[in-house]
Amino acid sequence: MHRPGSGLRRLTGLLLLLNIGLLAGGLIMTYWPSRTAAMPEFNADKIRLLDIGGQGKRAESAAPAAAVASGARIPSCLNWPSLDADALAVVEAHLRATGLASEEHQFRLARSLGWWVYQPPFRDAEALRQALEAARGKGVSDLAPVRGGRLANALSLGVFPSLEKARAHAAALTAKGLSEVRVGPRPEAGEVRLVFPANARLPGNPAEGWPKDLHPGICEADA
Predict the structure, then answer these.
(1) Which residue, among 105, 134, 116, has the nearest Cα to 196 in the 3D structure?
(2) pLDDT digits (tens, 9 = 90+) for 108-133
(3) What's the predicted TM-score (pTM) here?
């Protein structure tokens, strides 16, 4: 037996429950997507950070290995069968162009007195005689005419055990008034070695980038 108003109360209760359900569903839909969207973003950042850390460690460990491998390929000695003064000037210009300081390398010859200071060949024997007398007049005593070979009629002004000493003597002769004073390996000096000390700060592989006609060989530096 129905009581008056009971149907209305049930209907009101159902509507109230439905509204509560819709409200709860809305709250869930509003809250849950933001959480689910944020989680992948956080995880992605975390993964990227972990990956970057791994790459950094790999790069740090790979760098020394690459340096060692690169250093193993860099020679400590280059050589040419021979060089004249002009070719030596080209070699030194190339070294300067690569940024290699003069104290980072040394030229060596097989002969103990392989470097010489000279004036290049004069046009004939008479011109050579006049140059010889002019040098003596300036107080130069260590001189000798070159009589044969491709440098015949040149005037030798001294031989030295190192390029540095030869250049110092050439500078002293120039200060006395001699012109066209040149320095280079003697024609019979033979092999020329370019040696890099163990602590040389090489800007790259010194065996690379040379002019084709001056490409050096690789040798073992003397102890």
Answers:
(1) 105
(2) 998 889 999 999 999 999 999 999 99
(3) 0.64
